[in-house]
């Protein structure tokens, strides 16, 4: 299934595509690799193996992606709303869309690979959205997309509105901004 959306906040298309490119990296000894959205990739063991294989001698990977504690308000609320009786049935076989490991878990995964030089560190990139419109746009694109796609069309607006309303209420600061946690894992590794 492919879902195309245009993000008005960032003005780029967000595509949720079930094709998994991590299992189809075909270049060998050719590349440097960098990516900031790898929390959408579930199998990081395979990712790291294929990146290592694709790297040129001395090549590096430099990743920055969501880790444990990322978007804690959104995740708490989305779990709650998914469990409402009128939505719960649609999420019985739902596969969580993100891999957001603890730093210790990712360090263990990295140490199982063949890289010569490894560095892995956490980053607190918490954010205050300036306006209600900004946080709503972030929720709409891309955060809520994988959750809406499992619901029938007639259930999507109510689900989305419940998540948005609860997020706006929970994250609003006294200065009119809206706070969300953004916790990142940074990786540097050399072949």
Overall description:
The chain is of the alpha+beta class and 191 residues long. It has a single domain, classed as Rossmann fold, CATH 3.40.50. The chain is built from 7 helices and 8 strands, in the order βββαβαααββαααββ. Strands 3-4-8-5 form a 4-stranded mixed sheet, with helices on one face. A two-stranded antiparallel ribbon has the order 1-2. The chain has a two-stranded antiparallel ribbon with strand order 6-7. β3, α1 and β4 form a beta-alpha-beta unit. It starts with a strand and ends with a strand. The N terminus is likely disordered.
How is the secondary structure organized here?
Elements: E1 2-6, E2 13-17, E3 33-35, H1 44-54, E4 60-66, H2 72-82, H3 85-88, H4 103-111, E5 117-124, E6 127-129, H5 132-143, H6 145-148, H7 156-171, E7 178-180, E8 183-190
Parallel strand pairs: 3-4
Antiparallel strand pairs: 1-2, 4-8, 5-8, 6-7
Helix pairs in contact: 2-7, 5-7
């Amino acid at each position: 299934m492919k879902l195309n959306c245009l993000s008005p906040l960032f003005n780029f298309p967000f595509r949720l595509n079930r094709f998994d490119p991590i299992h189809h990296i075909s270049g060998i000894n050719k590349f440097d690799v960098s990516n900031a959205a790898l929390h959408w990739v579930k199998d990081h063991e395979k990712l790291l193996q294929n990146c290592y294989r694709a790297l040129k001698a001395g090549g590096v990977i430099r990743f920055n992606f969501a880790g444990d504690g990322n978007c804690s308000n959104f995740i708490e609320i989305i779990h709650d709303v998914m469990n409402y009786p009128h939505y719960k049935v649609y999420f019985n076989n739902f596969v969580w869309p993100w891999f957001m490991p603890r730093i210790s878990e990712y360090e263990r995964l990295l140490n199982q690979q063949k890289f010569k030089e490894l560095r892995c560190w956490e980053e607190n990139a918490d954010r205050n959205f300036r306006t209600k419109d900004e946080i709503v746009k972030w929720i709409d694109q891309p955060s809520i997309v994988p959750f809406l796609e499992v619901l029938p069309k007639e259930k999507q607006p109510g689900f989305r509105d419940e998540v948005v309303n609860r997020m706006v209420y929970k994250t609003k600061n006294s200065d009119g901004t809206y706070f969300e946690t953004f916790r990142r894992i940074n990786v540097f590794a050399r072949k």
